[in-house]
Amino acid sequence: MTKYVFIYHAPMTPADATPPSEEEMQAVMKEWSDWGDKVGSGMVDFGTPLAQGTRVTPDGTSASDREVAGYTIIEADDLEAAVELAKIHPHLTMPGGCEIEVHEAQAVPGM
Questions:
Q1: Which residues touch 68 (CB under 8 Å, ≥6 apart)?
Q2: When you count CB atoms within 10 A of the terminal residue's CB, does the N or C end of the chain come out lower?
Q3: In which region does residue 40 sit, left (phi positive, over 0), alpha (psi from -120 to 50) or beta (all else)?
Q4: How far apart are CA 107 and CA 111, in angstroms?
Q5: Nearest 5°: phi and psi at 47?
Q6: Burial of 33 (0-12, 13-18, 19+ CB in 10 A)
Q7: What are phi and psi of 42, to 5 degrees?
Q8: Cβ contact 32:90 at 8 Å
Q9: Closest Cα partner for 50 from 35, 36, 39, 66?
Q10: 2-11+37-104 belongs to which homologous superfamily?
Q11: Domain ranges of the chain
Q12: Chain-centroid distance, C-alpha 33
């Protein structure tokens, strides 16, 4: 099986947004947990939310120009199977135009 990295993109939450209630957070986490159950033994790293990205270049640093909300690493038979799992991910139902990028994790020669 091949490893695939899901990169979650989401718009920034406005500073004046009302935080979700405990019940709302539990409902969202259940959706993610249920999705993880569908991935089953292919789950390599459920991942974590990410924040405050910094772009590092030879010329210095700057704020990331794309909001990366988190990641997950799974194993799947092929890219098509990984994309099918992304298509049913609850991240896509979140407000604001959330997206998922799916990347194949390629082996590093000599490692």
A1: 7, 8, 9, 50, 53
A2: C
A3: left
A4: 8
A5: 90, -165
A6: exposed
A7: -80, -5
A8: yes
A9: 66
A10: Dimeric alpha+beta barrel (3.30.70.1060)
A11: 2-11+37-104
A12: 13
pTM: 0.87
Residue in 48, 61, 46, 51 with CA at minimum distance from that of residue 13:
51
Q: Which tens digit of pLDDT belongs to each residue from 100-110?
A: 999 999 988 99
The DSSP element (H or E) to which 101 belongs, if any, is strand 99-104
Q: Report the C-alpha gap between 74 and 100 in whole angstroms.
A: 13
Determine the 3-state secondary structure of 45 from DSSP.
strand
Cβ(50)–Cβ(68) below 8 Å: yes
Any idea what DSSP says for residue 17? S
| Single-letter code of the amino acid located at 26 | Q
pLDDT in tens, 83-95: 999 999 999 998 8
Q: Which amino acid, one-letter code, is at 58?
A: P
Quote the tokens at residue 94: 């979140």
CA count, 13 A, side-chain hemisphere, 30:
6
Query: Residue 90's closest CA among 22, 39, 23, 21?
Result: 39
